[in-house]
Please model this.
Amino acid sequence: MIVKMRNPNREVEIDRSMAVGDLLTTLDLNREAHLVIVDGQLVPRDMVLSRDSVVEIRPVISGGSL
Amino acid sequence: MKCRVCRGPAVIDVRRHNANFCAEHFVKLCRDQVAKAISEFNMLQPDDRVLIAVSGGKDSLALCDILDHLGYRVEGFYISLGIGEYSKESRGYVERFASQRDLPLIIDDLPIDYGFDIPHGSRAAKRAPCSACGLSKRHLFDEAARKGGYDVVATGHNLDDEAAVLMGNTLHWHTEYLGRQAPVLPAHDGFPKKVKPLVRLTERDTAAYCLLRNIDYMVEECPMAAGNRHLFYKSALNDIEVSSPGAKHSFYFGFLQRAAQHFADAAGQEMPAIRACSQCGAPCSSETCAFCRLVDRATAPVPIRMKPSRSSTKVKT
Model:
């Protein structure tokens, strides 16, 4: 599957299927700080992503002046 | 995963509630949490005119959508900060959102209206960019609320923001700031009432809410925020949250319920007398307010450093 990440923009290719939760663990990404999106839709932690999926992992943490 | 409410397919898990939700019931959860915060902290009255500080990011746009849905009279206020492409893009997100939803929108433009932008102004004033940005936004929100006769200014600060600030203030024992940290700041001495209706929602909640409501928001981070210490605190708190779901909520709301009162005296002792700024008339604690001083320093002519020529430095003997 192709995994697109932001801030900075980059892509990672993973050649096996896996569940959303496992994908975040594999990429060492905090589940509280990211959403996983497929075809513009939010997908749950237990959904299994196929090898040919195109996945966006969107960070949700923003900073700056408070 | 099944929705806790309807048992249909869930799209998101919310571990601090130990529950999963479908799209419809997650959106309802977010709105209910905001309504609960408004009621619990007496933030808004039904007929209030509410000025919402909007940035184009997920929090402020979600806040507009939720308060509008809850029936409040809301208007947006955007400040163009002159941070290159980032400011141009964020303004586009705000204008499209406002146009699609008929949201009345006020726009201030720092470079046009005040003659400086945050990158150059903060350097000239020898302030951190986030410090100059925060100072400018607070001043201009206050001014817009005062001039426009709004009852209250609402900002998109969420649970992660408040827990990160609390962590920073606690690590350094800024007791005067701890005494003032609250989801509602009452109007006083010419300053408008300020409220944070998203304090019961995390950043993950507001981002998911925007996705599910088809709210297009600016995902890119402000380039000036890199290295900001609040990002570090948020990351540390999320590491704790993974191991201990609900930790951020307990930290912040536990502070409000059981600790904040103990710092009230420290906050009161540090409150200086308020008077009018000699330049703009805004309430402040010194002859000239901090924003006018920032404008003065940011727009002052830059002195040209003349390097003495070899001949002029010769001493005639």
Summary: Chain A has a mean pLDDT of 92. Residues 2-59 of chain A form a domain with the Ubiquitin-like (UB roll) fold (CATH 3.10.20.30).
